[in-house]
Every structure is written in C-alpha cells, then in structure tokens.
# Entry
Amino acid sequence: MSDRLWSAQDAREAMGAQSVGGEPGPIGSVSIDTRTLDPGDLFVAIADQRDGHDFVADAFARGAAACVVAADRAPALQALGPLLVVPDTLRALEALGAAARARSHAKRIAITGSVGKTGTKEAMRLLLSRSGRTHASAASYNNQWGVPLTLSRMPQDSDFGVFEIGMNHAGEIAPLARMVRPHVAVITTVEAVHIENFKDVRGIADAKGEIFAGLEPGGVAVINRDNPHFERLCAHAAASAAGRIVTFGEDPRADVRAERIITKPDLSIVDARVFGTPLTYRVGMAGRHIAQNSLALVAAAQALGVDLALAAMALGDLTPPVGRGARSELPIGGGRLTIVDESYNANPASMRAALETLGQMELPWRGRRIAVLGDMLELGPDAARLHRELAPVALGAGVDLVFTVGPLSKELHAALPPERRGAWAPSATELAPALLAALRPGDIVMVKGSRGIRTEHVVKAIKDRYSPPTAAAAAAATPEG
# Structure
C-alpha cells in the first residue's frame, strides 16, 4: 500500500473545498495540532481551545501538504501555501471522516462507558490487530473533533476501525455514533461520572445509551449485564437498528460470563463461558475491573466473527498505558521505588479500582503502599461525601499513607486516621516536596486524580528526582581526565 492517505483531489471533493495558493501534494495523514504534525500532513484549522488559523504558518513551516481554513480567513493566509478553503473547518473534517468511512470496508467498533473507555479501546486495537489491519483512536480522541479526526485518518484498506466516544452532557454521543456508524457498539459500564451535568445516574445511562443510535442496521449492542442500569441500556439498544444484544459480566445470565476471575499483582486469569463454550485466558494487566472489561472485548470479538483463540491470546499481551496504570521502578537509597501512574483521570469507580489494585500488589521488605489522590471533579453536590468515602476504601486496601491534592481532597484527608495521613496541598506541584521527602526504599506509590488537578506533575517530580541519568547526561557530568 502507498503511504498516501488521501490524494489532494479526493480530500478536496470530500470536503467540498476550493483550492487557493497552489495544488497540494499527496496527503500522508490529517492533523489539527502542529506540535504533532508530520511533513505531508493535512492541517485542519479547528477553533477549539485555541484557533487553529493562528497556527497555519507554523503548519507550513513543519511541512504540511496543505491547510484547511475557513473562507473568511483565507485572504490573509493564501500567501503561506496551498489552502483548501471551506465554510466551516469542523464540518469539513466531519465530511472527510464520513468519506473515509464510506470508502472503507472496515468493520467499525464504537466504545463508551463511564470508566475504562480508553483502556478498552486500546485492548480492542491489540486484539483485532491479530486478525487484520486495525485503525483506532489516538489517545482519548473521543469528542466532537477527536472522532471525525480518527475517521479521517482511517486507511482505506483497514479491516477494523476502533472508536472511543465520550461525553460530558446529554446529546453529545448520538451525533458522534451516527458519524462512526459502528457495526458493534460497547458500553463498558455506567457510573456517577460527570454527575454534576445530570439529574441522576439514570441520566448518564441514557446518555451512554445514545451510542446505539448510530448502529448499522443489524449491528450488535454489547452491554454489561452486571450494571444496575442494564435494563435501561437494553431499552436504548432495542429502540435502535441493532440486530441483537450481547451481554457480558459475572451474572449467570450473561452471554459472555466470567465463572472465575483470579487476580494477581500483575495480571488476572479469567475462566469464562462464551455462549456456553468454555474459554480460559490471561489478561496482562492487574485489576479485577480490567478482567471484567475483558469480557466486553471477548463479546465484541465474538460479534465480529474473529478467531476467539487469537483474541484471547492477545489479551495476555496487554500492558498499561501511561497515566492508566503504567508502572516504573526507580532506584532509591540502595533499593527500588515503584510508581503506578494512574494520573490521567479519576472518578469514584476508577479510584476504588485503583486503590484495590494497589492493595493487591506485593510489598518488598519494609515497603509501604502510598496513595497520592487528587480531586475528582464534576461530581456535583455529593462531591465532598464521595471524597470522604474513599477513606475506608484506602484503609481496606492496606494503604499505609495517603497524600491528597486539591480542595475537595481535604475532605478525604480529614476522614483518614492521623497515622495514615500524608501531606495535603492545594496543588500537585506544592505537594511534591512533601511526598519526595517521605519516600524510602521498597515503597509503592500510586498517583491518581482528575485531569484538572494535574497529578501527572507528581509523577514527573518523582521521576526527575530518582530516574538514573541517561548515558549522555552522565558523560556530560563526568570531568575530563
């Protein structure tokens, strides 16, 4: 296959664009961020947190094949290089994504849920790649620009396309699902996430159920049989074009059922039945919640008709991504320090799961389990209570010290016994010095918080302090003899 993703003519026709400033060359990929743009990419100037039109010059300096710009901005930009001029750049990106979908025979899978979307998407990418050419969302590209961007990047010869779809408010998932038009749609679970934007958790279930509105006729809805909102989600699936509903979970009535889950410090073993047929497999990541989500993967694989033996083998190769459970070992005082990086995001369900997983990790001699927990955001009027309720979870998991970050986490700090309290600070950068001073050989440190609290700064501070120097840095620091 050629490295060309789009010809200039095909992209122009798909978007209904007009060429200004010369004819673009072949397009290697599509970008909306000049920081990650590669030479030959098509840059689409989206107005999101910042206006992409302000970065068109930078895009051309980095080798963009062309830039997609709004008609009212084109006159000021046409001297910079080849432009594809459209009335609205986001609508143009959506049109390009729709064209990518239409020209491909790929089976498409859409995934949503309150917890575990990105991890399940990455696992699905790995699983399906054993059976064909698989395209999937980068990072957490699951919103109004991330979904069409992922579609627009899908190679024509893809066998599978995996799309993560997220939301903060009702009505956001349905248009994205209709854009993807999945053959299989998965809801991992429904929990009280973004609850401040909803009357209650039932509203969240209804918002997640919108994913079925985009199903191709005869498609498959994959639903968690263990979730309290199962019947509500089934009603959404029944009202869609779904041809059938496939259920997963530990409930005896689930189509893909875990008869036994054995959790270990670094992996899990699942004894399952897939429509009555036994299937045992290993999941290469720790945590019961990961093992439970693996059942959704098996259910989706079965719905797609891929080889379940290959799919099960792939699950054994799962590794946690950065910010979602990635582990690092660093030298400290003649021993080792383990970091569990869960810093990408947080909500009550994922906090409980992370603390329980920390509790299952084997401690080195004289080591301690330390949790660094930041605020969980968008929880509405129950936020203080939900933070306090993490205290017994941490204690039950055998956490020795809990450091807390953010105004809401002060509630958790106060709810802990004094001997289990680490420091509290209003920000991650202010907390780091106290945490670094407390660390010692054998400690396991798990860091987690909502994106707005930036707990990744704590992870960086630990790594900056204890990571061994690179060979180049060591050589530069060695005086010449």
Q: What stands out?
A: The chain has three domains: 8-87, 104-315, 326-466.
